[in-house]
Design goal:
alpha+beta, Sortase, Chain: A, globular
């Protein structure tokens, strides 16, 4: 009987050891995979983003003076803060607007579904954006190289146009414990963070979009694109009224930023740790829409003037 009990104890101990070993192996793989994906993103950030999209030099000919884009839609920026190299284009004096992205390299060498790049200076949010043509949840749990697992990608769903022309473009990203992806959206829970980090920048192959953040708050997990009527002005106005009416402890609202039913918004959505039924949202309104050709012209004019 004692031998039998000893055998059972040894068997149980062996099973426990195997479970522990499997758990340790899983944890090691999880963090190794996360670190590998972080390295991929870091490489893209340094190699593919931040370079002019066209060569600068004597052979580069500027296009005719393009339409000026000034601060009319953003009262926080006055004409005194405009960078206006004559006769180049007028572009707000904001270094982040001059950053451009090599989308040809990203699409050919990394992933063909990359169609934009999102950045919030002062946070770790600085990533390519993807949209799968048929599977809305694909990049929730697939990485840039197609492998399954975390951290996934920053992505939008096919219901949103890739040119950001919709009233509300919803952008998703995981709240990773290591601080990557959309983890830093939670910085906006501190009301002192917003005044120092008010802008979201989105870069596309032909335009640079600057959005002013006007709201951040915890919300439920309803699907924002299916739950509200954005097709009518009444529906859009009603949605904005609901946002302005949020007065929870986690909500930070900037009432000085004007938002109307005719504007274009982005909603950045991420998870809330320990609350599967909640999402944390950061919302911003478009205040500048600048052609990449204008930015290249500005760089050319600046170089020629040196």
């Amino acid at each position: 009987m004692k031998k039998r009990n000893s055998f059972v104890y040894l068997l149980l101990a062996g099973v426990c050891l195997l479970v522990m070993a499997a758990a340790i192996a899983f944890i090691i793989k999880y963090y190794a995979d996360n670190r590998r994906e972080e390295a991929v993103y870091e490489s893209l950030q340094s190699a593919a983003a931040g370079l002019p999209t066209s060569p600068l030099g004597p052979e580069a000919e500027p296009s005719p003076a393009p339409q000026a884009f000034g601060p009319a839609s953003d009262p926080q920026i006055s004409s005194a803060h405009m960078a206006s190299p004559s006769p180049g284009p007028d572009i707000p004096d904001d270094e982040a607007l001059l950053r451009t992205v090599d989308f040809t390299a990203l699409q050919e060498e990394t992933n063909a579904h990359i169609y934009a790049w999102i950045s919030i200076p002062g946070t770790r949010i600085d990533y390519p954006m993807l949209q799968h043509p048929s599977d809305n949840t694909h990049y929730l749990n697939h990485n840039l190289d197609g492998s399954r697992g975390y951290p996934g990608c920053i992505y939008t769903e096919k219901e949103n146009a890739a040119d950001f022309s919709d009233f509300n473009t919803v952008i998703y990203g995981h709240n990773m414990k290591n601080g990557s992806m959309f983890h830093d959206l939670h910085n906006y829970e501190d009301e002192t963070f917003l005044p120092e980090h008010p802008y979201v920048y989105i870069y596309t192959p032909d335009r640079v979009l600057r959005y002013r953040i006007f709201a951040s708050y915890r919300y439920d997990d309803r699907h924002l694109l299916y739950s509200f009527d954005y097709a009518t002005e009444e529906g859009r106005s009603g949605y904005l009224k609901e946002i302005r009416g949020i007065r929870s402890m986690s909500a930070v609202l900037d009432d000085q930023v004007e938002v109307t039913a005719q504007d274009r918004l982005v909603t950045l959505s991420t998870c809330v740790s320990g609350c599967a039924e909640n999402r944390y949202l950061v919302q911003a309104v478009l205040v500048d829409d600048i052609p990449v050709s204008d930015i290249n012209d500005l760089l050319i004019y600046t170089t020629m003037g040196q």
